[in-house]
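Q: What residues go here?
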């Protein structure tokens, strides 16, 4: 069996959807050629069965020759065996093509989304990405699978038509004219179907976007009583999808009718003409039986060929969505200047706003506009192009991957993925291998707890050291109670964090950030969903935990601001005041932001 996925999916051809599908077929050249070859052999073996039966009728039954009858029955049996063997091999290769194309496309999409990183949600909707993974990849795989049966059908139709012309030019001509006409009629419907499917695909993507937005903001909607408004929007959008679906179904029903009606009419015409030729003595009974079998065979192969066209049509629509995503390139360039540990601990400065983060300090930034928090955080982390410098050198001159490793931004878009909680909090195993155990580092099941116990904390230079790092991060984020409330502790399988409240997710995001231990940690409103007591515990411990490392917290919480080494006030995107929290309280502008004090002119 061929293993999937491939170690390297390669570089795809993105010139057009058709070129992408051809590139996929070329990437699985051996199995694709074998699948079509076996498909041709299988359908040809099936095509010759009517001829063998006709010969058996004429030379065995009509002539009364038992030996000839047995011989031709053996030929029919042999053709059946060839059909069975080649059909099995064809399906095996076809499934290889299907999964190979699907996995390869999934690898390419995953690689591209990872490269785009934080740019992805700004350039592509979540619904569009979900639709690519859930629908488009499956259709591309199904199209490559259909080429084996469809290719065999096309070749066998040509062969059978040639045989029919040799035996009776009248019936052969009917077949040669009728098959292309039927195919042309169905192809015209396919083009219309292609257009309708493209429209349906766009509406489905928009509906998926709306569904994602509703799910993400469900708690907020309930808090402000907005469920009905969004329910009405979803209902309206879903009706548009239904309308497009009905239009597509109308064309699909016409295609299905054409697949049955046109080949059926062709069979009826061939049988009627054949019966007329037998009645006038110009054709033998066995030949009529053979021609009837040919007609039925051609009808089936025509359906297979049109089915292949249908699958390829759907795949072209899907491939367009995939190639549009794969053609995207990161807007941010990556430099090549070395970013060593010493340079990473230099001052981080944003000339546009005047914000400067001294190395090794706990700095809090209060902004009068919430949008400025996100913008400045993105600038400091180089998620947008900006003139921000680190140690006097523009961030743009450093490799982007190294900037991401040295400067970590945790904002409202932070997510927990599905899987074990320990792996979500420490995906790189910095706390000792990413294994579970309880929140205090002890193993469930004692010393024999295996990979799930405390013995797993060894990648950090020892079991105790790794467990201590995790325990300390949980302490700082005041998240012990979150882990202890889970039946399996850190080994608990979570579903994207949906089982946690907003405040619990914030604390787990902070644990993950602390375990990453970047040179500069940028937090955006990390305690906005917490009660005052929990927030106070985190504010008291955060500075000590990050001692010697730069920490930037964008917040207007007096509790956090009071614990910071240095506080910066940003007004209209520009630094207007700096100092300690107590000192800045004398500034009316600062009080207006932090204490919501309104100054009456």
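A:
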């Amino acid at each position: 069996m061929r293993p999937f996925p491939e170690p390297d999916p390669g570089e795809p051809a993105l010139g057009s959807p058709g070129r992408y599908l051809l590139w996929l077929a070329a990437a699985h050249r051996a199995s694709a050629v074998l699948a079509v070859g076996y498909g041709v052999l299988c359908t040809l073996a099936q095509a010759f069965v009517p001829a063998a039966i006709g010969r058996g009728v004429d030379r065995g039954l009509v002539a009364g020759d038992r030996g000839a009858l047995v011989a031709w029955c053996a030929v029919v049996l042999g053709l059946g065996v060839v059909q069975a063997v080649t059909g099995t091999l064809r399906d095996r290769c076809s499934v290889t093509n299907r999964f190979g194309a699907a996995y390869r496309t999934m690898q390419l999409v995953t690689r591209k989304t990872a490269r785009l990183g934080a740019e992805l949600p700004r350039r592509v909707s979540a619904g569009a990405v979900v639709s690519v993974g859930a629908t488009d990849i499956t259709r591309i795989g199904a199209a490559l699978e259909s080429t084996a049966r469809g290719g065999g059908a096309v070749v066998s139709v040509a062969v059978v038509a040639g045989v029919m012309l040799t035996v009776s030019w009248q019936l052969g001509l009917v077949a040669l004219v009728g098959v292309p006409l039927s195919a042309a009629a169905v192809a015209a419907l396919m083009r219309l179907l292609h257009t309708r499917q493209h429209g349906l695909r766009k509406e489905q993507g928009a509906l998926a976007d709306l569904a994602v937005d509703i799910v993400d903001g469900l708690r907020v909607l309930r808090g402000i009583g907005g469920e009905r408004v969004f329910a009405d929007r979803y209902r309206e959008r879903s009706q548009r999808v239904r309308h497009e679906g009905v239009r597509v179904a109308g064309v699909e029903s016409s295609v299905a009718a054409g697949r049955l009606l046109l080949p059926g009419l062709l069979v009826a015409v061939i049988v009627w003409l054949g019966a007329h030729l037998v009645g006038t003595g110009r054709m033998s009974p066995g030949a009529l039986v053979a021609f009837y079998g040919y007609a039925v065979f051609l009808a089936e192969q025509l359906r297979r060929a049109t089915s292949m066209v249908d699958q390829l049509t759907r795949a072209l629509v899907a491939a367009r969505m995939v190639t549009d995503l794969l053609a995207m390139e990161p807007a941010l360039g990556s430099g090549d200047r070395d970013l060593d540990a010493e340079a990473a601990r230099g001052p981080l400065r944003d000339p546009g706003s005047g914000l400067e983060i001294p190395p090794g300090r706990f700095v809090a930034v209060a902004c009068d506009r919430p949008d400025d928090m996100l913008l400045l955080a993105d600038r400091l982390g180089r998620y947008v192009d900006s003139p921000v410098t680190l140690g006097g050198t523009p961030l743009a001159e450093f490799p982007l991957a190294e900037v991401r490793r040295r400067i970590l931004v945790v904002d409202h878009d932070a997510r927990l993925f599905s899987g074990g909680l320990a792996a979500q909090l420490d995906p790189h195993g910095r706390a000792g291998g990413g294994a579970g155990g309880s929140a205090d580092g002890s193993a469930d099941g004692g010393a024999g707890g295996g990979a799930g116990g405390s013995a797993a904390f060894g990648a950090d230079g020892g079991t105790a050291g790794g467990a201590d790092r995790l325990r300390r991060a949980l302490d700082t984020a005041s998240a012990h109670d979150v882990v202890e409330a889970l039946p399996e502790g850190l080994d608990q399988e979570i579903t994207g964090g949906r089982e946690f409240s907003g405040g619990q997710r914030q604390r787990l995001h902070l644990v993950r950030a602390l375990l990453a231990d970047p040179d500069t940690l940028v937090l955006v409103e990390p305690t906005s969903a917490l009660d005052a007591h929990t927030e106070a515990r985190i504010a008291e411990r955060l500075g000590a935990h990050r001692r010697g490392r730069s920490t930037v917290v964008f917040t207007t919480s007096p509790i956090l601001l009071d614990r910071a080494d240095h506080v910066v006030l940003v007004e209209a995107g520009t630094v207007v005041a700096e100092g300690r929290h107590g000192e800045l309280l004398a500034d009316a502008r600062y009080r207006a932001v932090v204490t919501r004090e309104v100054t009456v002119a």
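A: Context that may help when evaluating the design: The CA atoms of residues 35 and 92 lie 8 Å apart. Confidence is low (pLDDT under 50) at residues 433-463.
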